[in-house]
Sequence to fold (176 residues):
Amino acid sequence: MNNSTIEKARKIKMLVFDVDGVMTNGDVTYDENGVEYKTFNVKDGHGLVRMAQSGFITAIITARNNGTVEHRAKNLNITELYQGQKYKLPALEELMKKYNLDYSQVSYMGDDLPDLCILEKVGLKCCPQDAVDEVKNVCNFISSKNGGKGAVRELTDFILDAQGIEKIQIVSENKE
Fold:
């Protein structure tokens, strides 16, 4: 990673994530009753719990509404969850105001066109390896992993390393 990206990572206080295509591989599965299922990566979850335990603000901003995402956010001690956000920037601006942060202190990981409105503004612009080209073109951190396959963990480890924070053992009841 280049020095400019490491410098950006040193300023981060809040990590914000899209869900589909970032925390999951982007597949959506429905049963015969229309119930939606998502599959999450445990290593990604472990990284997110470590960030929370290290004092970072973690947030999800997603266009979809899904009980599975709410359950996952609670399991991982995600600080803030915004669902049903077709246009995501107002949610981010609300978070920044609430926590008195500027764009340089925010990392966002997205994978598709609806994420560009945030990616164009934040300090650490991140995406999984399988993000669309338009997103990759604006990002300064492109994971070597695909969405739902370790991209989130790679980012959390990178930020912890950049800030010289020891990768602590998780002390909790959840299995992450």
